[in-house]
Specification:
The protein is 16% helix and 37% strand. A three-stranded antiparallel β-sheet has the order 2-1-3, with helices on one face.
Length: 81
C-alpha cells in the first residue's frame, strides 16, 4: 500500500485571533497570535493561553474571533511502482 503508518500527533499549536473595534477606513484590524514555547504540550501552557483569551474577551477595544489548540497526524505516501 502506498500510504505509510500514521505518525503523530505533532506538538500542539496554539492560535488566537481577534479584531479591533476601531476601524482603519472601512475595515477592522485583524490580529493573529501564535503562541509557542519549547514544549507547547506542557500542562502549564493552557492556563497562559486562557489568560490571553480572557484579556482579549474582556477588552472593550477588541473582539475575540477564535482561540484554538490544534495538532495533526500525517501519513507518508510512496509511489506504487
Amino acid at each position: 500500500m502506498p500510504l505509510g503508518s500514521p505518525e503523530g500527533p505533532t506538538q500542539s499549536q496554539w492560535k488566537v485571533s481577534a479584531r479591533s473595534v476601531d476601524r482603519v477606513g472601512d475595515y477592522p484590524v485583524e490580529i493573529a497570535v501564535s503562541l509557542s514555547v519549547d514544549n507547547p504540550d506542557d500542562p502549564a501552557m493552557a492556563p497562559i493561553v486562557q489568560k490571553l483569551v480572557d484579556l482579549i474577551a474582556g477588552s472593550p477595544d477588541f473582539l475575540l474571533s477564535s482561540a484554538a489548540r490544534s495538532y495533526s497526524y500525517s501519513e507518508s505516501m510512496t509511489p506504487t511502482a
